[in-house]
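Supplementary notes for students who missed Thursday's class. We covered one full example, reproduced here. Read the sequence, then the structure, then the short commentary at the end.
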Amino acid sequence: MEWKKYWDLLTIIALSLLLDLLIFYFPDSLMRKVLGLAFVLFFPGYVFITALFPNRKELDNLERLALSFGLSIAVVPLIGLGLNYTPWGIRLTPVLVSLTIFNVIFALAAMYRRAKAFDPWVPWITLEDIKRELEWDQASRVDKALTVVLIAAIITSVGVLAYVVTHPPKPGEAFTEFYILGPEGKAADYPPTELKVGQNGTVIIGIVNHEGRNVTYYVQIWLVNLTWDNTTNTTIVYEMYPMPGWFNVTLPSVPVNIEGNWTPQFETNYTFSIDKPGKWQVWFLLFKDKPPELPPPAPPNGNYAETEARNLILKAINGTIQSLKLNVEVRP
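Structure (token representation):
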């Protein structure tokens, strides 16, 4: 087998395998980004077209080039769609392995088809080959101009896309993850909705900073008794007591990881008990940089329902304060 006859397909196989190694061992290298563009936008369509049309006269070179880009853009989303219905999902490793297998299989198929072709197409290598393939000497001025414009448009498009990928914009949205988990660290097995007076309940409070800067978080916990008045469409707060365990923590910003498994940044156990029977809500309020001050002085009975602190719960209900709540019925 003359390897020069298959140099393009062998190169694609080698570069696909090289990209796999770069991603796992040198994930931040510039070569990974450059190869990644070709791996996604050119290789799949090229090997597919070459396998389908191995003969020289079936397609000209510009058609092969354009179809290689176009089919790559069509094939890659279809592979992702298929992965979405598998246990692996659309993640870096499954996508990488799937595309590598696709490139290798169709490259081998293209080599087989080229070996059996009557007049096999092999991409040009020298400037003279390019002129001959484009029939440059026999082409009219208009054809030459259109060819130059088409080639320039393809090169410009690839260059712009490469710049966008290698210089991604800064994330446009800053946010904070705020969550509560059951005592086993799962989004289940929360404290029972029914407790006895003085019985302990435990949750895990978690915070993850994606704000793009260091943030000091303040968490307030309130015990609230409220109802919704359907006639006036308003929330009526009857009782509101601060619960022990308020805390603050300063966290650095961490990037959003969509490729690997989710990991917590800050978690703390919070154990509480309620010494009054009734239907209660335990509200967890999250504030950034500085907490709101309680209205001085504290009410004699400790009930803040008739103070400005009531607005904290109302804002939490309206979504203007990041918050979480637990509904608990306390029995004697």
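Commentary. The two ends are 87 Å apart (CA to CA). The mean pLDDT is 84. If anything here is unclear, bring it to office hours.
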